[in-house]
Design a protein that fits this description.
The structure is a single chain. By secondary structure, the chain is α/β, with parallel strands linked by helices. Helices cover about 40% and strands about 15% of the residues. The longest helix is centred in the middle third of the chain and has 12 residues. About 20% of the residues are buried. InterPro entries: YeaO-like (IPR052552).
């Protein structure tokens, strides 16, 4: 299971594998035809409430990760996770995100969760 992370604004590379946008909102200023996104899994993204709470208080990173993990255990995230895990069986997947913070964002939290929950 190879999971990579990349800002959606970075150019796609051959080694990216399947490029999956894991944000609820489409990235600002990015044309869909130039994005190089294979799949947009909105339902795997944090809820609007959680996203807004965290956006205003990045110092609450640990709280965000715990709340997001809880959301990942419920629908509609569970259905999206089935699709994502299916992709991971066939090759590398790059989780795309728009956040400027490359160390504390939902894609980082999702990758950590996936690696922890891997069978």
């Amino acid at each position: 299971m190879t999971i990579r992370l990349k800002r959606v604004y970075e150019t796609d590379r051959d080694g990216d594998g399947t490029r999956v946008l894991v944000d609820r909102l489409w990235p600002r200023g990015l044309a869909k035809e130039k994005a190089g996104i294979d799949l947009w899994l909105k339902d795997i993204a944090p809820s609007d409430d959680l996203r807004k709470r965290f956006h205003a208080r990045p110092e609450l990173w640990d709280e965000f990760r715990a709340a997001y993990a809880t959301e990942l255990e419920r629908e509609p995230a569970q259905t999206a996770l089935v699709e994502l895990r299916g992709l991971l069986k066939h090759g590398p997947v790059t989780l795309l995100y728009a956040a400027r913070d490359e160390e504390r964002n939902n894609a980082v939290a999702l990758k950590e969760w996936l690696e922890r929950e891997a069978p």
